[in-house]
Amino acid sequence: MSKSRRIGDFTVLSLTFKIGVAVLVAIAAVMWMYWKQSADGKLPWNEAYPVILVGGVVATGLLIWLALQIVWWVEIGPDLCYATTFGTHSIPWQEVAGIQFEIENQGMKLPIVPIKVVTNQRCHAIIILKNQRVLRGIVNGSEALLLQELMQQKPTLDTNLKHELSSPRSTMMMFVDSLDEGFVEKATRCIDFSLVPELESARAMECALNLKERLDEVWFISFDDMPDDPLTPSPYIIGSDDDHQTESDQRRRENTIEMTRDSATEMWRFSAQTALWVLDS
């Protein structure tokens, strides 16, 4: 995507922001009360002044913080751009930790996957940056898919990912935790799609969800039982009685969920054969 495109409505105010406003109003009310009592002669000025001074300093800092929290717009393209009260910011997609999507149902916000949102349906997008900044907005289905596709395209061979995919146990933990937290795109990075290089982002996310269903059928969640050694014999077969089934007849077995280690990147992923099986099933 070579050109930037402004999406959705990111002027949505978070609960934290609303609480901040309530605190600011409360501070202002206390300051006014002390000033009024001093002006009416009910309270000496030397007693009211410290309270008003401290309240003014706190209120000023809180006001600046609140102004920084407001996001006026978000643009997506080669980088993620957004505008706050004090200027615009441009960050590379590598600095985006993840994106979550939610829809409202009977007053409750439920996590969803973009592929389950129709084009004209609107949902809440929560963009989480690595610097802990959170951008909240409302986007339509096509914009949600576009966000996920841009996340899918960002470089993944960084040191954090190499650490997270350093062993069968680490890869499984990242895969399961990512899905539990709603980061489906992040979970797709645990799968080797080298045999389907033109795979669309939506299909990759669907594959991750279906793979989790297959795992639930053969694997009881016990990370401690999985090897944490980067040099574990590859492939590592999931759900077997033997933790290290590496014979050729076992590798060729159909409907096998296995992880393999890429000798070039030294990262463990669910194998390309497993990805093909899940996509075809």
Tell me what you see in this structure:
This protein has helices at residues 15-39, 45-69, 141-153, 159-164, 168-180, 184-188, 201-218, 248-251, 272-280; strands at residues 5-7, 71-76, 79-84, 87-92, 96-105, 108-112, 122-129, 134-140, 236-237, 258-262, 267-270. The strands form 3 sheets. It has a 4-stranded antiparallel β-sheet with strand order 1-2-3-4. A 4-stranded antiparallel β-sheet has the order 6-5-7-8. It has 9 helices and 11 strands. The radius of gyration is 25 Å and the shape is elongated. A hairpin with a 2-residue loop joins strand 3 and strand 4 (87-92).
N-to-C span: 32 Å
Write down the Rg.
Answer: 25 Å
Low-confidence stretches: 241-253
Summarize the biggest pleated sheet: 4 strands, antiparallel
Give the neighbour order of strands across the main sheet.
1-2-3-4
Number of strands: 11
Average pLDDT, rounded to a whole number, is 81
Compute the number of helices.
Answer: 9
Order of helices and strands: EHHEEEEEEEHHHHHEHEEH
| Overall geometry | elongated
State which percent range the strand residues make up.
Answer: 15-25%
Structural class: alpha+beta
Relative helix content: 40-55%
